[in-house]
Amino acid sequence: MGHAPASAEPAVLIAQMTDIHIGFEPQAEGEELNLTRFRATLERVIHGPNRPDMLVLSGDITDHGDAESFATTVEALRDCPFPVLPMVGNHDCRPGLLGAFPQIEPAEGGFLHYVVEAGLGLRVICLDTLEDGRHGGAFCEARADWLAARRAEAPDNPTLIFMHHPPVVAGIDWMDPAPHEPWMERLREALAGQHQVQAIHCGHLHRPIITQFAGIPLGVTPSVAPLVAMDLTPIDQDAPDDRELITTEPPTYALHRWDGQSLVSHYERVGDWQVLARFHAGLQPMIRGMFAERE
Ligand SMILES: [Fe+2]
Ligand SMILES: [Fe+2]
Q: Where are the strands (E) in the chain, listed by range?
């Protein structure tokens, strides 16, 4: 009998769904597409093999911030067996989110940001980047002070930041901020030269993106709602060119896995896939061969 090396250690799993946009089509006949996509994604996260310890909803939960859309969201989450961490995006509004999730305690200044201890020493900071009436993000002095205070509470703890708006120019012209917007530069200064923040995970762009910000890995999780089309050519706002803007690429969620040492992020598209191989006795030699290499 060969020695069987230990399989993966227990880890903390943080699911992230973003940009659900419930209420985009309030007049839809039958169930609106965004709600169908949300239910399918939830079904996979709740009943799939990787049940998370918590679920972050990183903003644009609703399309108009109205109470009814938030209520629909809460109703869809009713059987969720793990804690839900809701955040505001530019399509939401703080009173709407608070009405639906009264457990959230606003921080000073009314911002809806907070800290959660995720387990195995990982701190999660959910940062509010909403500026009412604006599509793009915000990170004002008050928020910089709040973030500095939260980081100072546990300077040696590995920390994961969620924020709706990615503070980067991604090349999707119509969705992008201007280069070096003041709020982005303020955030860059706030995070410069530190080793506490393991990663920043965002939403808003409706596309998967990986980059770096202030030396920190930064990911954008694609939307649950329809995706933004993959077109990196410059756009002329005065010349409609019939380019693709929004597509029905499948809904996607992220699963961030923290094992006490490192943070690894997975993305799963939720679709009607076929399973082409399963772990049955016939494939056991292959699986065993892979484990043998780990010795
Ligand atoms: Fe969005
Ligand atoms: Fe957004």
A: 12-17, 54-58, 84-87, 114-119, 122-127, 159-163, 197-202, 209-213, 216-220, 227-228, 246-247, 252-258, 263-269
* Rounded-to-integer distance, Cα 174 and Cα 256, Å: 29
Residue 28, pLDDT score:
81
Instruction: State the DSSP code for 4.
Output: -
Both tokens assigned to 288? 């065993």
Distance 143 CA to ligand 2 centre (A): 19
Distance (angstroms) between ligand 1 centre and the Cα of 256 equals 20
The partner residues of 58 in beta bridges, in order of sequence, read 87
Q: How far is the CA of 88 from the centre of ligand 1 (A)?
A: 11
Structure tokens belonging to residue 276: 């082409």
User: How far is the centre of ligand 2, averaged over its atoms, from the C-alpha of 128 (Å)?
Assistant: 12
> Which residues line ion ligand 1, judged by CB < 5 Å?
19, 60
In DSSP terms, which residues pair with 15 in a beta bridge?
A: 55, 255
pLDDT in tens, 251-261: 999 999 999 99
Q: Which ligand is nearest to the CA of 166?
A: 2
User: Which ligand sits closest to the CA of 223?
Assistant: 1
Ligand 2 geometric centre to CA of 262 (Å): 28
DSSP β-bridge partners for residue 246: 228
Residue 82 is classified by DSSP as S
3-state secondary structure 259-270: CCCCEEEEEEEC
Low-confidence ranges of the chain (pLDDT < 70): 1-8
Q: For residue 115, report the phi and psi dihedrals to the nearest 5 degrees.
A: -120, 140
Q: 59 alpha carbon to ligand 2 midpoint, in Å?
A: 7
- DSSP letter (8 states) at residue 22: B
Ligand 1 centroid from CA 265, angstroms:
20
pTM for the complete prediction? 0.96
